Amino acid sequence: MCALHWDDLKQGLMDRDMWSLVASSDRAAVDRYFAEADDPRMFDPLMAAYWQIQSAALEVCGMELRGGSNVRERDCSLCEVIEHGEDADEWIRGCLDVQLAQARKLGLMPRVQ
User: Fold this and answer.
1) Domain count, the chain
2) Amino acid 22: pLDDT
3) Which residues, at least 6 apart from 103, have a Cβ–Cβ distance to it below 8 Å?
4) Angle formed by the axes of helices 88-105 and 45-61, nearest 10°
5) Which pLDDT score, from 0 to 100, does residue 55 have?
6) What is the C-alpha separation between 86 and 71, in angstroms, rounded?
7) 111: in domain
């Protein structure tokens, strides 16, 4: 993901007061990823959002997402979906709303903010 979209994703989590749920380092993110299978409360909304976007982008773009288009040089699925007529900001908002709902379901965030 390009720096612009990655920063937008992080800012969206901060705007939703979810930043405290994000792993503090790359190593911690990996550890939490594997721990989440046994304890769903190890949920990391940044990584969950990233993988949700990757999955949806693959559905929209197909295998060209990992192919050789010029946009791929930036290595950003959201840049690629823009090339397919999608709104990256809308994708980020929708994806982060899903992460907030999941955090609430797990009791990690209050029902009302």
Assistant:
1) 1
2) 97
3) 18, 21, 43, 45, 109
4) 140
5) 93
6) 14
7) no
